[in-house]
Amino acid sequence: MSISVKEAAERLNITVRAVQLRCKKDKIRKKNNTYLITEANIETWRAEPKEKTGNEANERNEAKHYVNDTDTTEAEQVTETVSVQ
Q1: Which partner for 52 in 10, 11, 20, 56 could form a disulfide, CB atoms 3.0-4.6 Å apart?
Q2: CB of 8 within 8 A of CB of 37?
Q3: Is there a contact between 15 and 9 (Cβ–Cβ < 8 Å)?
Q4: What's the rounded Cα separation, in Å, for the pair 74 and 31?
Q5: What is the pLDDT of residues 36-83, one digit of tens each?
Q6: Is the pTM of the predicted complex or chain greater than 0.70?
């Protein structure tokens, strides 16, 4: 019997997205668009440190860069070059 992503997240005290990323990283098979998470997967993940995966950190950083890039672009559009004689 497989364990749902939601149940795995509750049992591991992590987010649903973190479970999805672990499934992807560990190449857990899917059936009918549902990950086939087993007790063995849960025990393996429980033994791992609760660090953020690289994907989670990258997603947050990309979001920050997007905001910063947008702000910079708007600032560049507003700024005009003034020549002094």
Answers
A1: 56
A2: yes
A3: yes
A4: 46
A5: 999 999 999 999 876 665 665 665 665 566 555 555 555 455 444 555
A6: no
The beta-strand segments (E) located in the chain are 30-31, 34-35
The CB-based long-range contact list for 44-52 (8 Å cut-off, 24+ gap) reads 45/8, 45/12, 46/12, 50/14, 52/18
Instruction: Give 23-31 contacts, CB < 8 A, sequence gap 24+.
Output: 25/53, 25/55, 31/2
Domain definitions of the chain by residue range: 5-77
SS3 52: coil
The pair of structure tokens assigned to 71 is 């702000």
Token pair 């059936």 is at which residue? 31
Instruction: Determine contact, residues 41/33, Cβ cutoff 8 Å.
Output: no
Residue 28: both structure tokens together: 């857990």
